[in-house]
C-alpha cells in the first residue's frame, strides 16, 4: 500500500525516470561502428605522384614523336646529307676551325735503311720501293726502328750510412775488466770521441 505522500511526491518522478529509461532502451544502437571509414581524398590520391606520372608520360610522348620524325626523315632521304653549302648554325656563329696539319709534322721513321725517302706519305708508312725485291722480313733482315738514347744512364749514388738504431746491427757487449759490467753504447761513443 502506497502512502499519500509517496503517491503524490515520489511516484511521478519514478514513472518519469522509467519512461526515460524505456526510451533509452528502445533507441539504443550497437556500440561497434560498422560503417565504412571516412574517405580522405587528399590521402587516397597522391596528387604529386599523379603530376609526376603525367609529366613523365608527356615527355615520353614528345620523345616518341621526335623519334618518329627523325625516322621519317631518314626514310625519305637516300643518303647522309654531308654537303654543307653554308656554315653550320652555332652560337653567335662561333665555330672552331681546326687547321690541317702539314706533312712536315709527321714523325720521321729511322730504319736500318736510313732516312725515309721523299714522296707521298700515308701517316706512319713508308712509300713503296720502285724496285720490286724480296720482303726484308722474309729475307731475315726486318726493319727495326732505331731508338737513339740521348745520354748514358748515371749510376746510382752509394747508399748513406743509417743512424737508425733499430735497423743497425746490435753492437757486441763488452765487459769492463775492472768491475765486470757491460759497457753501454753511449759510453763507448763518448770514449771514441773523447
TrEMBL record:
Short name of one Pfam family: Hmw_CFAP97
Family that this chain belongs to: Belongs to the CFAP97 family.
Name of the protein in question: Blast:Uncharacterized protein C17orf105 homolog
Species this chain originates from: Drosophila guanche (Fruit fly)
